[in-house]
Amino acid sequence: YVLWPKGEPFMVAGSTGTGKTTLAQQLVLRRIGVVEGRLLDQVVEVSERPLLYLAIDRDKQAQRSIRRMIEVVPHGRLLWHADLGAYDPRKSAPEQFVEWLGIHRVGTLVIDSLYGLIGQGKDDSLVDWYIRTLRTLAEANIEVLVLHHFRKQGKEDGAMIERVAGAAGMTWSA
Predict the structure, then answer these.
(1) What pLDDT sits at residue 159?
(2) How many CA atoms lie within 13 A of 9 on its CB side?
């Protein structure tokens, strides 16, 4: 079994408060070599390249969470952004975003959360940008981990994948 197939975008989806950020950060810490050992009984490959964590949703909470897990991160291993500042990748071609990541030698991109990047998925141009970006990141050998919330609906029935908004372009296995 493989927790995160190499070259495939990986999505952690769930309701608010179910531990998506905690799980992702446990994965991140193993990915950058700060924590050793298996996660969910699976080996996590350590990346030699830095990891960029885009804490777009509840950035202060995510920062507190990771600080509870570790005290010091080796210099240059984890890049943390609560926003992209003046640079908004959604206003440029995916290739330009990947080039921007390349400047920082990023090997893994974590998006926390997809909603913060593309909203509710009602803007077709943003959804298209996201799908093209996933493909471009894969071509550039940049791994992608995406955190996302289930769609808010009155009932929580149906298959899990059908309740995930923004799942386009993701590879799934059971």
Answers:
(1) 39
(2) 26
pTM as predicted: 0.84
- Judged by DSSP in three states, 57 sits in coil
Residue 140: which residues within 8 A CB-CB, separation 6 or more?
98, 101, 102
**How far lies 150's CA from each of 18, 123, 147, in Å?**
11, 18, 10
Query: Who has greater pLDDT, 113 or 153?
Result: 113
> Higher pLDDT residue, 160 or 51?
51
Which has the closest alpha carbon to 89: 67, 74, 75, 104? Answer: 104
Are 91 and 100 in contact, with CB atoms under 8 Å apart?
Answer: no
Q: Are strands 78-81 and 143-149 parallel, antiparallel or unpaired?
A: unpaired
Q: From CA 99, how far away is CA 24, in angstroms rounded?
A: 24
Q: What is the pLDDT of residues 133-148, one digit of tens each?
A: 999 999 999 999 999 8
Long-range contacts of 102-105 (CB under 8 A, 24+ apart): 102/140, 104/50, 104/52, 104/79, 105/49, 105/50
Spatial separation of the C-alpha atoms in residues 87 and 98, rounded to whole Å: 13
Mean pLDDT, the chain, rounded, equals 82
